[in-house]
Amino acid sequence: MMIFLRLFYEFFKTGLFAVGGGMATIPFLYNMADATGWFTRIDVDNMIAVGESTPGPIGVNMATYVGYLTGGNVGGVPAAILGAVVATLGLITPSIIVILIIASFLKSFRDNRYVDSAFYGLRPASTGLIAAAGLSVVVSNLFFSDELAQDFSFALFNWKGWILAIVLWLLTNKVKQTKGLHPILFILASAVVGILWGM
C-alpha cells in the first residue's frame, strides 16, 4: 500500500511544480529516477521516445508507464494497473485543483496584477525546465555518459545517434523532397532505424 501512496505523492509533486506542460516534467522524472530507483535515466529517455510518438500528453503517458512498471514490480498485473491509475491521478490532480480554484475566482483573477505578474515570472522558469529537459535528452542520446565521467574522447560519442540526428536534420531542413513531409513519418522511420540498429 505504501508504494501507491509514494507513487501518488511523487507524481503530485511533479504535477504541482512542472509548469509548462509535459516536457517540463522531464527534469522531475530524472530526479525521481535517482531518488526512488523505480526506473533509470535510460528508462526516462525511452519513455520520452515512446511518449512523444504516441497520442496524449507526454507527462501523463510517462506517469502511467512508471505507475504500471512500479506497481507491477510489487504485485503483478492488478497492482500494475492500480499503479498506473494512482500515478496518473497524482500527476493530474494539482492541475485540476488549480483550475477549479481559478474558475471559482475567475472574475477577480482576470484583472489581478499580482496573478499576472506571477504568471509572467513563471514563463522563464518553465522555459528553463523545458530547455534543461531538451539538453538532457540530447546529451543522453548523443553521448555515452560512462565515458563522459572518465575523460573526453571520441569513444564517448554515440555515433549511431549522431548519424540519425544529422540525417533527420538534413531530411527535414535541406532536402526539398522530404522537408514538407509530416513529422510522424520521421518519427516512424526513426523507430524502425532504432530497432534495426539496436539503439
What is the succession of H and E elements? Answer: HHHHHHHHH
Question: How large is the share of residues in beta strands?
Answer: under 5%
Structural class of the secondary structure composition? Answer: mainly alpha
Q: What value does the average pLDDT take? A: 82
Question: Which regions are unreliable across 5 or more consecutive residues at pLDDT < 50?
Answer: none
Helix share bin: over 70%
- The radius of gyration computed from the alpha-carbon positions, rounded to a whole number of angstroms, is 20 Å
Secondary-structure map:
Blueprint: H1 2-17, H2 26-36, H3 41-53, H4 58-104, H5 106-110, H6 113-142, H7 145-150, H8 159-173, H9 183-197
Helix pairs in contact: 1-4, 3-4
Considering the chains and any ligands shown, give keywords for the structure:
single chain; mainly alpha
Would you write up a description of this structure?
It is a single chain. This protein has 199 residues and is mainly α. Helices cover 79% and strands 0% of the residues. It has helices at residues 2-17, 26-36, 41-53, 58-104, 106-110, 113-142, 145-150, 159-173, 183-197. Helix 3 crosses helix 4 (58-104). The longest helix is centred in the middle third of the chain and has 47 residues, at 58-104.
